[in-house]
Amino acid sequence: MIVQHADLAREALDKSLEVREEAGLPFGTPLNVYDLCELLTPRVRVRFADYSMEGCYCRSDRPLIEVSALRPLGRRVFNTAHELGHHELGHAGMRLDERLEDGKADPNSDPDEFAANAFAGFLLMPKIGVRQAFNVRGWSIANPEPEQAFVVACHFGVGYETLVNHLAYGLRELRSSLAERLTKVRLPAIRAALLGSKAADRLWVADRHYRMPTLDTEVGTTLLLPLGSQPEFSNIVHAGDLATGRVFTAVRPGMTRVEAADGWAVTVRIARYQYSGWSTNRHLELEDGDDV
Amino acid sequence: MTKRADPKQLIAARLKEARELAGLSQGQAAKKLEMHRPTISEIEAGNRNVTAPELARFAELYDVDVRWLSGAGADQLDPQDARLQLAFRELQKIKPEDLDKLMRALAALRGPKEEE
Predict the structure, then answer these.
(1) A191 and A200 Cβ atoms separated by less than 8 Å
(2) Which has the closest alpha carbon to A259: A216, A210, A292, A220?
(3) What is the crossing angle of helices A2-23 and A73-88, to 10°?
């Protein structure tokens, strides 16, 4: 059985690399899974649903992934990548996933579920990229502080627990005992450590080492960006400055470019809170008379 | 539920459902289709006829099967449908009301041809 799961993991890794190659994406960099789905042939449609489940994949000439908009942003990303795994690995029929292990490829699970989880982990958090993300910040991948793991999770667009589990069980870079300790740290404590008295319910961090050209978020989320960051439009509003960065709040759907000194820039794409609909419509500006 | 007896009302109801599934407001849909918002509103209320070319544009914008939009097929898929290949254990994992929503969405959004 162990050999079988090793084979599944190898197949999932190889497939994740094939998918990156097909989309013309480098092997080690963070990626936006919704943009990736648009680049594939056939295009894989992704819709955020307003009901509770983890994800659903429907195989057809026009493949469809549904993920619940009621899950946190990072979780939606992982769930989409998991369902994309079912698609890419050729799993038969329609998949309905009510509860997924958060980034953990459980060897006791259904082989297809194990493989889809492994695919999602390798696709979103490739080993070379994860090592670089820790190295460039001068942090230890084998012994990270919770806040450091949180920042690196944001770097890859996934949730904190997803990254920690992938470090331990996917990449084998972290002892499982340390992973268990890290996953017991609650997110409010991490947010408080990063933001102090400005701690918010939802936080996303993009520091100077953030590599993606875009940052996907939703209305109401607090953003910690590099000091000196200036948005082009008022979709995000300045909420204060800390020693570690400049704090913004996302207030309106749409897109805005944000620039800081030394050429750092990112396009922040803001969706309505718990937006449901096609992923391609998630950052549309509101029209007159629309509700946030 | 949509009224089966009146095709105009059925199309109107499906246009509204498809727009909402797509995540678009009436204003956003109107802008993309270069229509006035009240036109969308009137169409979805069943007060204005929709031409075949307009229906095709709606289907493209909302990314739904134009045949479903024009009233063909069921409002909701049957989760026991063998083509869905949903295992019983999977059906047990989701609340009945959420499964209903999923089956409604799939009726509109699923591709026209299923792989065997």
Answers:
(1) yes
(2) A210
(3) 100
Q: Tell me the ipTM for this assembly.
A: 0.89
Nearest to A49 among B31, B93, B105 (CB): B105
Contact A259, A265 (CB under 8 A): yes
The enclosing H or E element of A278 equals strand A277-278
* Gap between the terminal Cα atoms of chain A: 50
Half-sphere exposure of A286 (CA within 13 A, CB side): 15
Q: To the nearest whole number, what is the mean pLDDT of chain B?
A: 84
The CB density around residue B28, as the number of other CB atoms within 10 Å, is 23
B90 touches chain A (CB under 8 A): yes
Question: Which residues are CB-contacts of A231 (< 8 A; sequence separation ≥ 6)?
Answer: A248, A256, A257, A258, A268
pLDDT one-digit tens code per residue, A20-58:
999 999 999 999 999 999 999 999 999 999 988 888 888
Q: What number of residues does chain A have?
A: 292
Interface test with A, best of B98, B103, B104, B113 (most A CBs within 10 A): B98
Q: What sign results for the dihedral spanned by CA atoms A48, A54, A58, A62? A: positive
Give CB contacts under 8 A, 24+ apart, made by A174-180: A174/A141, A174/A142, A174/A144, A175/A142, A178/A142, A178/A143
Q: Which residues contact A14 (CB under 8 A, 6 or more apart)?
A: none
